[in-house]
Amino acid sequence: MAYKSDIEIAREARKLPILEIGAKLGIGSEDLLPYGHDKAKVSQGFIDSVQDRADGKLILVTAINPTPAGEGKTTTTVGLGDGLNRIGKNAMICIREASLGPNFGMKGGAAGGGYAQIVPMEEMNLHFTGDFHAITSAHSLLSAMIDNHIYWGNEADIDTRRVVWRRVVDMNDRALRQITCSLGGVSNGFPREAGFDITVASEVMAILCLAKDLKDLEKRLGDIIVAYRRDKSPVYCRDIKAEGAMTVLLKDAMQPNLVQTLENNPAFVHGGPFANIAHGCNSVIATKTALKVADYVVTEAGFGADLGAEKFMNIKCRKAGIAPSAVVLVATVRAMKMNGGVAKADLGAENVAAVNKGCANLGRHIENVKSFGVPVVVAINHFVTDTEAEVQAVRDYCANHGVEAVLSRHWELGSEGSEALARKVVELADSGKANFAPIYPDDMGLFEKIETIAKRIYRADEVLADQKIRNQLKEWEEAGYRNLPVCMAKTQYSFTTDPNRRGAPTGHSVPVREVRLSAGAGFIVVVCGEIMTMPGLPRKPAAETIRLNDAGQIEGLF
C-alpha cells in the first residue's frame, strides 16, 4: 500500500486562521502578532496577564537512543497532543524550532510526520518567524564588538589568547570549526585563533530558552563570559556594553510562536538548542505560558532520554521551577531490532529474538527516567511492518520492568490512533504518583555532578579528565559557579561516547575533552569524546535534492 509523504499530507491540511487558534487558548487578537495567516507570536503582555493562574500538568516525551530506523519522538508528541484533545482534554504542545543545519544535512525536518504534524511545516523548517536569524545576529554582534573593543585600545585588558567567545552560523560547516581571524594587516585588527559553532549550540540560544522575560534576558546576556585577562579574571559581555543591543535584536524572538497541528490544536514552537551539544529543550517562557492556558502540556526533549530527558530534569526543570507529572518513552519495534543487531535492510522481516535482545536499551532508559521520581509509559510508535508477535515482545518486556507499553498509531490515523496512549497518560498524570527530583543537588561539586550523570545515567565506570580540566572546574567553583548544573555534550547514538556501541553497555569510560562555562545560561558544558559543536554535512547532504518544482513548491525537504 502506498502512503502519502509528510509534505503531501501537510499541503492538504485545512488550517484555521491563527487568530482562531489563539482564541482556543483565550488569547485575543490584540495579543497576537501574526506572521501571515497561520502563525503568530504571543505578546509579553498576555504572558504577564496569566501568571496568577494555576499550572496545568506537564507531560515529557522522550525516547530510546536514536537509530537510523527512526523513533518518531516529535510525531508522538504531536499525536499525543491531538489524542488528548480528542478525548476532551484542554491540551497543547510545546516543541523546539528546527535548525537549518540538519534540514540540509541528514536528519531532515522537525515538525512530526504522517497524520501527526504541526503546520506550516515548510516554513517551520526553514526561516519560520526569524528567531534563529535573530539569535545568530545577536551572537555575531557580540563577536564583532569584542574584536572592535580590542582594536580600539582594549580598555577591558582582554588577553587575545584567551577570547572564549566563538562565532556561530546556522549551518553544518566543518571548515569553520577552527579559523584564524583578523588577517590582512593593521586595519583588520589583531590576528588570533577563533572558530564557529552551529547556532543551536550558542549560549545566546540557551539564554533565550531559559530566560523568563526581557529583563532576565538582558541580565543573562550581560553575564556571558567572553574572554579572560592575563591575570585570568573574566571579561563579561556587560564589560563590552553589548547586552542592551543584543536584547533589542532578540526582542521579538523572545515571544513564543503559536501554530497548529493538522487537527487544528494549538502548539508553541519556540527555541531550538540541540540535546547532544546543548540542553535540548524548547523555551521556558513557552512551556510556562502553555501551563497557564492548558490543562495538559505535552513537550519533548531532544534525542534519547540519556541526553534530552536528563537535561530537561536537571537543567530546565531546576531553572524554571517546573516538574513533569508523567513521562512518555517512545520506542519502535524497528529500533529494538536494530539494537538487537539487525541490519537496516533487514528490518522488514519478523525477528522476535532481535526485539527481545534490543529491548535492553529501552530497559536502561526506563530505569533512568524512573530514578527522577516520575511515572513512565512506553509508547510503541507503530510502523506498518510491525507484527503482533514483535509488539507483544515489547509489551511483555515493559511489563517485566513495571511499566505499561501502549501501541500508538498516530502516524497513520492521527488522534484516532493515539486515544489509548492519551488515556494512559491522563491516568498517570492525574494519579499523583510523581515525586520529581533532580539526581544531584545544587551544592555538589562540578566534577562530582559529571560523575553522577556518567555513572547513574550512562552506567560508566569512570570519568576520564586530565588535571587541566579538573583544575578549571575547581577555579570555577572558587569563582562562585559551584551551584551550576552540568550540560553533557555527547553522542546521541549510545550511552557511551562511541556512537557505534548500541544496546545497554557497561564497563566503559567517559572521556572529557573540554569544559566551557556558560555563565549567562547558568550551566557548565562538558564536551565528551569526539562530539562536535559544529557538525559537518554527510557525504550526500539532503541539500543536493532540495529544489523548487514547476509549481513553485519545495521538493526534497521531507
Strand content: 15-25%
Percent in helix: 25-40%
Judged by helices, strands and strand pairing, the structural class is alpha/beta
Query: What low-confidence regions span 5 or more consecutive residues with pLDDT below 50?
Result: none
| Overall average pLDDT | 94
Overall geometry comes to: globular
Q: Tell me the number of strands.
A: 24
H/I helix tally = 20
What Rg do the Cα atoms give?
Answer: 23 Å
Q: What is the straight-line distance between the termini? A: 20 Å
The largest sheet is:
12 strands, mixed
Q: Could you please describe the fold and organization of this structure?
A:
It is built from 20 helices and 24 strands. With about 550 residues, it is α/β, with parallel strands linked by helices. Strands 1, 2, 3, 4, 5, 6, 13, 14, 15, 16, 17 and 18 form a twelve-stranded mixed sheet that branches. A hairpin with a 4-residue loop joins β21 and β22 (about 525-530). The longest helix has 21 residues, at about 130-150. The mean pLDDT is about 95.
